[in-house]
Design brief:
CATH class of the largest domain in chain A: Alpha Beta
Number of strands of chain A: 14
Number of strands of chain B: 18
Strand content of chain A: 25-35%
Helix content of chain B: 25-40%
CATH superfamily of the largest domain in chain A: HUPs
Number of helices of chain B: 8
Number of helices of chain A: 6
Distance between the termini of chain B: 62 Å
Strand order of the largest sheet of chain A: 7-6-1-8-12-9-10-11
Number of domains of chain A: 2
Radius of gyration of chain B: 22 Å
Oligomer: heterodimer
Order of helices and strands of chain A: EEEEEHEHEHEHEEEEHEEH
Order of helices and strands of chain B: EEEHEHEHEHEEEEEEEEHEHEHEEH
Strand order of the largest sheet of chain B: 7-11-6-1-4-5-12
Distance between the termini of chain A: 56 Å
Largest interface: A-B, 92 and 102 residues
Largest sheet of chain A: 8 strands, mixed
Shape of chain B: elongated
């Protein structure tokens, strides 16, 4: 199978602290990493490759520095990384991002499956996956929590990128799980429940370090320049507000046994006030 | 080309329509009134209950576009998207609101991409810009640390998704007049590439975490898996759902569907009770918009106390049983 995983580089929020005055993240010195939710997409792709053969290509759009995210994907085991980079891409909203990535996917070509993370932890929209599927007219399953079967059809090397066959997946919904069968080529977005991503091996890291990643721009990949970057983005951020996170609530020190009962009564009266005590 | 009118995309459920369908009408009605235009709800279903559909009119819709066909019984994104795109091309609404559910978050971007529309996810506030009549869409970004207001100046329609439970459902006004427009399903819009094979309910009690009035969540401070029973007991007394921090999920104490936070779910219950959760920024991102937050933690310096309306510092293994006991008395559930 030939699988493409569109990924994103995001700020590493693991060690981020809050500025209590402004209620914002302290971003100074924050490192960039491969979007944690993309790890599940990469892992899903690698497992399918292990089972069915083929290759996995990671794709991203971003500044030159986002090649680091591709190297992280290669260190996990991806065969190659493709970077869309250029000033023309800056300021992209989800629509323009999906457009550029879909052209990048078309440029790579001959794929059986596109696997995306559920969403990026910075933008948090979850829109790019469905938008790519729509632009490429691929059948889509979102929130996939397990891949149950892959059927390859066709000639001697069925999953060679000819896009034959089908895939059966389970989607995680609000109240349960739904099973869908999609004809290939198709696009999946996967949730964290699907697997436990592997850690990069030493050999993987070396391969990643040595991998040649040359950035491609709109001059290398045919796309409508009016549809990328800020110009191609239907939406604009018009203002930013920083809400304070502190609620200044009441804190009761109930470490001493004598204070416990009073503290518990305070909780009960809060529940009563909110009307959540129902017989 | 003139685009006018505000639309909401209703969500069907087994027994009728999801409550979020009526919450969207609350949002839509206020926008339509500001614009002096009509509000319409779109229902795509396979075997809709017409009584339920009428309720949308009683709850504020001036019109309902109903596309009802057995082939639309299950949400298959391509099929629904084709129907919605056709309706948009025919009737040209200026604003479309959808629910930020597994269905809405799949359908809305699929449609937006197809028609080149701007779409803003998870809006918490929607308003109309006076001078331009544009939709102003406010949403949390960067883990909820900033609120960004977004607009689509030129392209139409303007599309947005809204989180369930972020507003109250519109009150029905019995006898309110409106029109149900039956739109015949065009079989050409059927995409046979995706087949629905089945559904199974969640085995765990995580199902309703985003719909629950009360979420009781546990973290690393619970020390071991068995102690989640105390959390479950409290949630049961309150008719609520069980949540967890990433730490608790990663340790295998509880399954991923319960996880609240940046890489889990965002919840906005009336009451969120965080027990033994220190309050990493990622967790706060998933719960700090709860209406009311109660914290139980042994550490007086725990960051989560900053977002608490009421915080109890002390031994959670002493406090939890005491609260459960009092709850048993109050609500009479065992």
């Amino acid at each position: 199978m030939k699988i493409i995983t569109p990924v994103k580089q995001v700020p590493e929020t693991g060690n981020v602290t809050m500025d209590e005055e402004t209620g914002t993240m302290k971003r100074a010195g924050v490192e960039s990493i491969l979007n944690p939710l993309d790890l599940y997409a990469v892992e899903s792709a690698l497992r399918l490759r292990e089972e069915h053969g083929g290759e996995v290509i990671a794709l991203t759009m971003g500044p030159l520095s986002s090649e680091k995210a591709l190297r992280e994907a290669i260190a996990m085991g991806c065969d190659d990384g493709v970077l869309l980079s250029g000033r023309e891409f800056s300021g992209s909203d989800t629509w323009a991002t999906a457009y550029a990535l879909s052209r990048g996917i078309g440029h790579i070509g001959d794929y059986d499956l596109i696997i995306c993370g559920e969403r990026a932890t910075d933008g948090d929209t979850g829109q790019v996956g469905p938008e790519i599927a729509s632009l490429l007219d691929l059948p889509i399953a979102t929130y996939v929590s397990s891949v149950q079967a892959v059927h390859c059809a066709g000639g001697e090397d069925p999953c060679s990128g000819a896009g034959n066959g089908d895939i059966v997946v389970e989607r995680m919904l609000e109240d349960g799980y739904e099973t869908l069968k999609l004809l290939l080529p198709a696009l999946l977005t996967v949730v964290k429940e699907i697997n436990v991503p592997r850690l990069p091996t030493l050999g993987g890291k070396k391969t990643a370090r040595d991998a040649e990643i040359s950035p491609r721009s709109t001059s290398d990949i045919p796309m409508d320049r009016k549809l990328v970057g800020l110009n191609g983005s239907p939406t604009r951020v018009v203002s930013i507000d920083r809400p304070k996170v502190t609620r200044n609530g009441k804190v009761i020190d109930a470490r001493d046994e004598s204070r416990r009962e009073e503290a518990v009564e305070e909780v009960l009266s809060c529940m009563r006030r909110l009307g959540v005590l129902k017989r | 080309m003139i685009f006018s009118g505000v639309w909401t995309v209703a969500e069907a459920s087994a027994g009728g329509l999801e409550p979020v369908s009526f919450e969207l009408l609350t949002r839509g009605r206020s926008l339509a009134d500001k614009l002096g235009t009509d509000l319409a709800a779109v229902v795509i279903a396979g075997g809709a209950d017409r009584g339920e559909v009428r309720k949308l009119i009683e709850a504020g819709a001036d019109k309902v576009y109903l596309v009802d066909d057995p082939r639309l019984k299950h949400f298959i994104c391509e099929n629904y998207s084709n129907v919605l795109v056709r309706l948009i091309q025919r009737y040209k609404p200026e604003i479309i609101l959808g629910a930020a559910t597994s269905t809405g978050r799949t359908l809305m971007p699929h449609v937006a991409a197809a028609i080149g529309a701007g779409l803003t996810a998870d809006c918490t506030e929607l308003d109309i810009e006076e001078e331009t009549g544009c939709l102003l869409q406010t949403r949390p970004a960067i883990g909820g640390n900033i609120m960004a207001t977004i607009k689509t100046a030129e392209r139409r329609p303007q599309m947005a998704t809204v989180r369930p439970r972020s507003t109250v459902p519109a009150d029905p006004e019995p006898g309110r007049e409106g029109e149900v427009v039956d739109v015949e399903y065009d079989p050409c819009l059927y995409d046979g590439r995706v087949e629905w094979l089945g559904f199974r309910e969640s085995e765990s009690d995580a199902a309703a975490i985003q719909d629950a009035d009360v979420v009781v969540a546990g973290g690393r401070g619970l020390r071991k898996k068995d102690n989640f029973d105390l959390i479950r007991e409290m949630a049961d007394h309150l008719g609520g759902a069980v949540g967890a921090s990433r730490d608790a999920v990663d340790r295998g104490w509880i399954s991923y569907p319960h996880q609240v936070g940046l890489s889990g779910k965002t919840v906005t219950p009336r009451l969120y009770i965080a027990i033994g959760i220190s309050g990493a920024i990622q967790h706060l991102a998933g719960m700090k918009t709860a209406e009311h937050i109660v914290v139980l933690n042994s550490d007086p310096e725990a960051p989560i106390l900053k977002v608490a309306d009421l915080g109890l510092v002390g031994d959670i293994f002493e406090l939890m049983p005491m609260i459960n006991e009092r709850l048993a008395e109050e609500v009479g559930r065992e």
